Amino acid sequence: MKILLVEDDIPLAEALMARLSEADVLVEHAVNGADADFLVQTERYDAVVLDLGLPDGDGTRWLAQWREAGIEVPVLVLTARERWSDKAAGFSAGADDYVTKPFETAEVIFRLRALVRRSRGHAHPVLKLGDLACDTHGGTVSLAGRPVSLTAQETRLLMHLMHAVPGVVSRSELVEHVYDRDHEPDSNVIDVQISRLRRKLGAERIETLRGRGYRLRDPDAESGGADGAGAAGADGRDA
Fold it and tell me: Domain OmpR/PhoB-type, which positions (predicted)?
């Protein structure tokens, strides 16, 4: 999961980013609305955590502009304002959830994961595809009821593919959502990670579609039609 944190309180932002990173969440930070506006229009995020009291204008104004521009990224408002009128203004501007300060970081993480799941059409915290299950709260993966040991990057990559089922995820999208923007991976890192997941989950579970990207499939389900006809071999590297 990759999020944008819009918060001008630097100590608070640094503490929250540290906790989010410990939970395997990629975080980018903006200290004002203008920087956040540029980022949400040029980068892809799974969610935005937005403070309302920003130095260059109320957060609800920036949020309303994003919604008017058709930017539909889930937004969690994080603010010290507790009055119902402030909450109503946030929801009216297009907020998806609201947490007041002070807060428990674990609650913010749970709410963010719930927002991302629901934005992708998943209501339950455990994502399933056949006998493959991913617990988005605990960050654990099981196959046929048995736990699968994955690295943090492998888990993020698999979770992103699971959220996209039955869609196809491009290589560039995986790079953006699995790796920190300040630490761009080598060109073949995605291939290596996909190969490792195939070894741990089964080669037939991840399709490579030439020129398009990758897609998770349930190997026990009936074969999918023409869309899968262009899939490369299990270790195909031409997505």
Answer: 124-218
